[in-house]
Amino acid sequence: MLLDLAAGVRHLRGLGFQHVVLVGNSGGGALAAFYQAQAEHPTVKAPPAGGPPDLTAVRLPAVDALVVLNAHRGRAHVLTAWLDPAITDESDPRARDPDLDLFDPRWGPPYDAEFVERYRAAQGARNSRITRWVQERRAQGARDEAFVVHGTAADPRFLDLWLDPSDRAAGTYRGPDVRAANAAATGLARWSTLSSWLSQWALDTTNAAAEPNLAACSVPALFLQGTADQGIFPSDTEAMFAACGSGDRELGWIPGGTHYFDGQPELQARVFDGIAEWLRRRKMEP
Fold this sequence. Notes:
Elements: H1 2-14, E1 21-25, H2 28-40, E2 65-69, H3 75-82, H4 113-139, E3 146-148, H5 178-183, E4 191-193, H6 194-201, H7 210-215, E5 221-226, H8 234-243, E6 249-254, H9 265-280
Parallel strand pairs: 1-2, 2-5, 5-6
Antiparallel strand pairs: 3-4
Helix pairs in contact: 4-6
């Protein structure tokens, strides 16, 4: 994906555009940060699963600014925050630990701090457990193969609006039934491969986490976030903004804005106009 972005940037430069800006929406936010970090300070010689490209050799052309719009902290981070840690058998999502069951009314909602702490630790442990299995399969000679990741829509914030408060409605992007979204046949990272897990979804191996990459970026950066987003929460945006290494960074909230601004044309216009004005103030007239 970084090579695709580089081709686009080179094409625009070749057409004579004086300024090129990356707008990273949703998963594109961490991707844009990863791209710019490697353009400014190339360090990654190979993907986590091995092979090309060597980003220290391809010379990614840097851009002039970043816009991070309704973006999460990276695929590995958003998946881990959504992982169902109650699943104890990766081949059988019905095998569950009742002490970590988000849908057991004993625990909430609302969920107390002790449950949330245990839950978050178990989510990280499950991500690492899958990563170890992937590494074992590769060590056994499987270069790549497909597998299913069950239960990837179980963030406590989907059900408890007191956690990370915002204007959002309870539920997921699929609707209010969080249990159904968690058990659906499709979902975030539901279908993966050994190599894509290591690159995209594994906390322990991914190169594409937003915060360390943003820390390596020096260009102006604008962060925009809808306050009614059901999957990106205020603490996510604030963490990325705090991590950004640019001396010229700005954070703006879009009151009532959902993740995709579906049916919100006035808010879409506000976002577009806000980006244009921000660029004008930096002499990057769109």
